[in-house]
Write a structure and sequence with these properties.
single chain, 65 residues, mainly alpha, 51% helix
Length: 65
Amino acid sequence: MEKECVACGKKPLSKDTIGINKKMLGKGIANFYCMNCLADYLGCTVDDLLDKIEEFKAEGCSLFQ
């Protein structure tokens, strides 16, 4: 089932976007944000989130495989 942003309604959300939501907000979350809305929510930039995704991938995080 495709996920959509709870804040702006953007869909579908990519696997990496869903992964970073789970990593930053908790694996059991039901609502997801697009990259722009997640960055606003967390008080960071989209580039910050993209950098973190690359770090988590390099660490072998199962959310980003």
